[in-house]
Amino acid sequence: MHNKSVAELSRELESGKISSVELAQQFLDRLKLEDGKYNSFITISEEQAMVEAKAADDMRAAGKATAWTGIPFAHKDIFCTNGVRTTCGSKMLENFVPPYDATVTEKFKQAGAVCLGKTNMDEFAMGSSTESSYFGATTNPWGASSAVNRVPGGSSGGSAAAVAARLVPAATGTDTGGSIRQPAALCGITGLKPTYGRVSRYGMIAFASSLDQGGAMTRTAEDAALMLNVMAGFDPKDSTCIDREVPDYTATLNEPLKGLKIGLPKEYFSEQLSPAMEQQVRSAVREYEKLGATVKEVSLPNAKLAIAAYYVIAPAEASANLSRFDGVRYGYRCEDPKDLMDMYTRTRAEGFGNEVKRRILVGSYALSAGYFDAYYLKAQKVRRLIQQDFITAFKEVDVLMSPVSPSPAFVQGEKNTDPVSMYLEDVFTIAINLAGIPAMSVPAGFVDGLPVGLQIIGDYFSEARLLNAAHQFQQVTDWHQREPQ
Ligand code: GLN
């Protein structure tokens, strides 16, 4: 069962060959046995999972089953889950049990899905390697048998590793600068970051509010479509969520790609990309040509400014969002504070890890009086130019294709002492968040036995087209079915 996709499991459940309770038990047994190798989960919520599985069987018996009823899956530990600890990978929230569900959590519950637990992540989603988690690093299932362990990417590295290792068929992720796509690429799975505003952020712990977006991490594009069917939609509890009809994303998966216009941004095939990676990405694009697509070079002249703009905007927003963790209402509080100021300073000094502190310091500096215009305002202007580049490109082509990351999964410890080299991991993903457009990562080959992702970028609300393009590619390739040893 563990090798089956969500769509396949759904058919097994529907046929009555297996019950939701049996399926949940099988997955939980395997998860408990295997995850010691990867540390992809922070919390396994066995008791709640079995309650949900029983409810799923009842739902089916009552004739109310959806495609998700009884499907085991996991949430990134950034989505609030009522009654189940939600840590965001931080000591600050080590013992935080939310009294409410995120909208995304709620939607999966209504569909009858069975949440097995909460997956590991970089602390507060700040990182590209899942090494900054207070609960220890996650190991990539690819290359795990060799002498060195590799990172699964981040920040949604727990979800990516769990899906790649067949511990769950699907998991949620969030993407502020690449955190769904880069770990999906490094673990050889399929990842979808929707248009900003397509999926509610209510109850998703905020990092950088103008960039954060929840999305899907699965093995197949078809399953990503099934996930987005559940996740997408207007939510009055999130003021940036957009009120716009949600199509059935599975309905257009089989449209032919003949005539699809693909643009290759020349700035994304630069010296930052290793030749072996470039070869894989270009041969994936050739598959699309065989399917009837046409390819031309396009330019995103401001793309090179994306990392600099992001590392002002994201920390600025983070410094504001994270001010709520002060020891007063919830989360960690230091022992025996002398006075209020002592409580604030020691709580935050002890509760946050180094990368989070670095972001808060940078962000507070960028927003401070006298520097606001020079940094934050300037970065926002650059952001607009980057957005304009994409708008111009989509006048000529339907989708853009590029690499996801400059290299395959790197060795644990290789980059985590050098923030700038870590930040450069997102050189091909960050501009997409600044523009707010959707993008996917699709398995597209291997370099040195490690997975390589193809990034497919679309115009606003073109998720159906991206999923269609990814699904058609997966009908003629089998990269997404390869299983780590
Ligand atoms: N790696 C980027 C960062 O550290 C993006 C993280 C994310 O998308 N959550 O900010």
Describe the overall structure.
It is a single chain. The protein is 38% helix and 13% strand. The protein is globular. The protein has helices at residues 6-15, 20-34, 46-61, 103-111, 157-164, 181-187, 221-231, 275-290, 306-321, 340-351, 354-367, 373-396, 419-423, 430-435, 463-476; strands at residues 41-44, 72-76, 114-119, 170-174, 190-193, 214-218, 261-265, 294-298, 399-403, 439-447, 450-458. Helix 5 runs parallel beside helix 6. By secondary structure, the protein is α/β, with parallel strands linked by helices. It has one domain (1-485): Amidase signature (AS) enzymes (Alpha-Beta Complex), CATH 3.90.1300. The site of glutamine has 13 residues, from loops.
Considering the chains and any ligands shown, give keywords for the structure.
ATP-binding; 485 residues; glutaminyl-tRNA synthase (glutamine-hydrolyzing) activity; 13% strand; transferase activity; Amidase signature (AS) enzymes; single chain; ATP binding; 3-stranded mixed sheet; alpha/beta; transferase; 8-stranded mixed sheet; globular; binds glutamine
In short:
This protein has a single domain (1-485), classed as Alpha-Beta Complex (Amidase signature (AS) enzymes), CATH 3.90.1300.10. Helices cover 38% and strands 13% of the residues. It is built from 15 helices and eleven strands.
The fraction of residues assigned to DSSP E strands is: 5-15%
Unreliably modeled segments:
none
How many beta strands in the DSSP annotation? 11
Gyration radius over CA: 21 Å
Bound small molecules, by name, code or SMILES, are: glutamine
What is the number of helices?
15
**Helix proportion range:** 25-40%
For the record, what is the CATH homologous superfamily label? Amidase signature (AS) domain
